[in-house]
Write a structure and sequence with these properties.
This protein folds into 2 domains: 125 residues, Rhodanese-like domain (Oxidized Rhodanese, domain 1), CATH 3.40.250; 207 residues, Rossmann fold (3-Layer(aba) Sandwich). By secondary structure, the protein is of the alpha/beta class. Helix 2 runs antiparallel to helix 3, helix 6 crosses helix 15 and helix 10 packs across helix 14. The protein is built from 15 helices and 12 strands. Helix content is 53%, strand content 12%. Strand 4, helix 4 and strand 5 form a beta-alpha-beta unit. The strands form 3 sheets. It has a 5-stranded parallel β-sheet with strand order 1-5-4-2-3. A 5-stranded parallel β-sheet has the order 7-8-6-11-12, sandwiched between helices. Strands 9-10 form a two-stranded antiparallel sheet.
Length: 350
Amino acid sequence: MKRANAVTVAQLDAFDEVIDVRSPSEFSLDHVPDAVNCPVLDDAERARVGTIYAQVSPFDARKTGAALVSRNIARHIDERFHERARTWRPLVYCWRGGQRSASMAHVLREVGWDAATLEGGYRAYRREVLAQLDRLPQRYRFRVLCGATGSGKSRLLEALAARGAQVIDLERLACHRGSLLGDLPGEAQPSQKMFDSLLWKALGRFDPGKPVYVEAESKKIGQIQVPAGLLERMREGECLRLEMPVAERVRFLIGEYRHFLAEPAGLKEKLRCLNAHYGSEVVGRWLSQADSGAWPELVADLLHTHYDPSYLRATTRNYLHYDIARQLSIERLDEAGIESAAAELSRSPV
């Protein structure tokens, strides 16, 4: 039975703030994008209440839980919500739309704020995200940026977004550059669920009457899986092929991956993973180039031997219109070159 003051996922945008009252560990795994975490029980408190429930009694667990929840709600009101205006409309959710969100929403309504809860809680939200990730891509026409490693595809997406184009940067959402060496220093990838949430939010704001620009990707970006419905639509989309001199790609990649130059040990460890594909002689040559700091030679060698052939095989196999793709030539991957390419694409008929 639907609770009073409960709303659906489709009504999320009607509220001034979304409050996730689950524990910090639940929140870090996934949450509604832009939600704030105000746990009514933190991880240690949840464990404590659960232990009392199992080892003492449900009644004693509820007493302890109620005291903890009350103190935490009071602290959140005092520290976070005290300055909110009378007209503030918050939406509160927990795991399944149960007591945790109901308790917070009840107190907020007693104060005088028009608070609501999410019917079914996070579980209902997650089901809706998965369902919409199947449906939403069908609404859009995708323009897919193709180009060998170091062609500046991500930079071009940024420039297009700055010009007001509809863009999904999957690698940015996944915090990974999508290759063997694609880990971003100091940045962990989000959980699959969090990636799905961010992608759902991005897709949901687009106008179906305009194209969506995206970079050609494989099924996985690091450890993140690209949803099958989106990947299928991308592979059916119009392809735009970026072309530029190899020397410029080498220069660009040395700048992009300069963290490996500072600590070559990490680079060498990853290169050794390619032994099974290329043999010890080829990989040994790469390791020697890294040891001697011959970075232009190493990058050019990797592009010629590994990256370019692999990319061409995968793209021609998976992207239906790659062979008839419009070619976009960029002589230099600097601000002027990227802006010129973005301007040219922006003038293309929609």
